[in-house]
Amino acid sequence: MPAQPPAPPVLYTFPTNDVLVDSLANFVVKAQNDAIDKRGKFSIGLSRGSLAANLRGLVGQQNVRWEKWEVFFVDEAAVPLTSEDSNYHSNYLSFLSTVPIPPSQIHTIDPSLLDNIEELADEYEKQLIGHFAASNAARYPTFDLVLLGMGPDGETCSLFPGHELLEEKDAWVAYLEDAPRGPPKRITMTLPVLTHCYRAVFVVSGSEKAPMLHTILDEPQAGLPCSRVQPA
After folding, report:
1. pLDDT band at residue 3 under the 50/70/90 scheme
2. Which DSSP string do the residues of 36-82 spell out, in sequence order?
């Protein structure tokens, strides 16, 4: 059978950040309910950056089935889990520390491997294989929801414009040592993994990002990382 064409992007705008936070929480809960009804669990991937603060609307919600959540981090800096540069740490401070997700269902990097970035990426890929292989016979893991941000240059996850990792087709998790901003050493899920999810949502706030957002939506031929995440 021919592959399904990518679904066209749907743009939602919100008048204030508080409205965005509430709307995002409602969307995540709906995605959770759909996933649990169909597959019995909810797998979610979280990216670095300002996204974590926008998830605070989930705290205190009564209809979140935290015991069914499996949390992964779509990219992570090669830093201790207590570092302010850690994706896990940002999400821990924003909401993971205050909700009852079983610790075994929050999948972090192995901090003992920080000195070997290649092994760090390989070990995280093995975590994905261990979780998804039993229930998913597809070539790539299928997340129920991936929440992504957008960098000022159209970067997402830790996939930067013009970087060789944009062409990676085999690995689920790859590594880089030359990130142009922030911690240079990182691991990141690859484009095929991000594209293979059921839902991908970009959460973008701030008027300074509006020009780049227009470029991503109006000029997909530019091939910026954000515009290349196209779930079917």
Report:
1. low
2. HHHHSSEEEEE-SSGGGGGGGGGTT-TT--GGGEEEEESEEESS-TT
Task: Kindly report the CATH number assigned to the domain that includes residue 100.
Answer: 3.40.50.1360
Number of domains in the chain: 1
Q: Report which residue type is found at 56.
A: R
Whole-angstrom distance, CA of residue 12 vs CA of residue 215: 16
Q: Work out the pLDDT band at 4, boundaries 50, 70, 90.
A: low
CB 188 within 8 Å of CB 75: yes
Structure tokens at 135: 């229930």
Token output for 95: 């909401």
Q: In which band, very low, low, confident or very high, does the pLDDT at 135 lie, cut at 50, 70 and 90?
A: low
| DSSP-based helix, strand, coil % in the chain, nearest 5 | 40, 15, 45
Weakest mean pLDDT among 167-176, 188-197, 199-208 = 199-208
Question: Residue 72 domain-assigned?
Answer: yes
**How confident is the model at residue 137, as a pLDDT?**
58
Residue 105 included in any domain: yes
Domain of residue 139, residue span: 37-189+199-228
In a domain, 7, yes or no: no
- pTM (two decimals): 0.93
Tell me, yes or no, whether 8 lies in a domain.
no
